[in-house]
Amino acid sequence: MDRPPPTTGTLAPEEILAFAAELAEAARPIARAYFRTPLDIVTKADESPVTLADRAIEARLRGLIEARFPDHGIFGEEMGVKPGAAPGDGPVWVIDPIDGTKSFVTGLPLFGTLIAFLDGGVPVVGLIDMPALGERWTGVPGEACFGAEPARTSACRSLSAARFFTTAPDGFVGADAVRYRRLVAQTALRRFGGDCYAYGLLASGHCDLIAETSLQPYDIMALVPVIRAAGGVITDWNGEDLSLHSDGRVLAAATPELHAEALAVLRG
């Protein structure tokens, strides 16, 4: 599919990524300080838990972005859109302070901090940081890394050989559940849980296919540059590029061939 070449305005992607790494370094000690401690847990309208750690991390990151790039927009899970900044209009940072809050509050270390930089609505730079594990994936146009090493998706091209991940099978309901069962039945191996960690594993070639639904923009945007730069394909269930206005259905695959086969199954 054709899409405009990614840009970062007057900033080089490497400069943006370096700052994103600074943000992740600022978030890590906050997450670790709260992890596996008694937490003040609040349930949001969408029934996902919010903790003190979520709010503390987002407040810290927003403050750092405001200080460095006061003219940039910000869209965060806990505090929404920066006043006066329309998401997708110009440079925008999209942040999820703790992706996998349910893992976080139950002591499971598979939670992450997601940081994305968008220009004109296009995800250009993405970072997946795993504070409890000390692991990090990054993506800029043409280069994905796991730590300091290149990250590359597997060569899997068929569903029958694919190692499949999704966060929660019970997240698929109605017609989506039917489409999900049709897809997963054709895969070689199935694993569940992991939230954003699964996408890092896909970028490094350890799994081959991920299907999800009901995701929010802050769950998605940081994943896109990482998966694409690692050689994979990530779209919605219609094969369209993911954006701030996508419907929350995500399909990520190691190769174009695997993605096309999975997409055909989801479409029925």
Structural overview:
This is Histidinol-phosphatase. Keywords: Hydrolase, Magnesium, Metal-binding. Its cofactor is Mg(2+). The chain is an alpha+beta fold and 268 residues long. The chain has two domains: 138 residues, Fructose-1,6-Bisphosphatase, Chain A, domain 1 (2-Layer Sandwich), CATH 3.30.540.10; 109 residues, 3-Layer(aba) Sandwich (D-Maltodextrin-Binding Protein, domain 2), CATH 3.40.190.80. It is 32% helix and 25% strand. The two termini are 21 Å apart.
| CATH architecture label name of the largest domain | 2-Layer Sandwich
CATH superfamily of the largest domain, by name, is Fructose-1,6-Bisphosphatase, subunit A, domain 1
- N-to-C SSE series? HEEHEEEHEEEEEEHEHEHHEEH
Q: DSSP strand (E) fraction?
A: 25-35%
Structural class: alpha+beta
How many whole angstroms does the radius of gyration measure? 17 Å
Major beta sheet, specifics? 8 strands, mixed
Pick out the low-confidence regions. 1-7
CATH structural fold name of the largest domain? Fructose-1,6-Bisphosphatase, Chain A, domain 1
Q: How many runs of DSSP E, i.e. beta strands?
A: 15
Total number of domains: 2
Could you give the distance between the termini? 21 Å
Q: Given this structure, which CATH class of the largest domain is correct?
A: Alpha Beta
Organism: Methylorubrum aminovorans
Protein name: Histidinol-phosphatase
Pfam family, one: Inositol_P
Cofactor: Mg(2+)
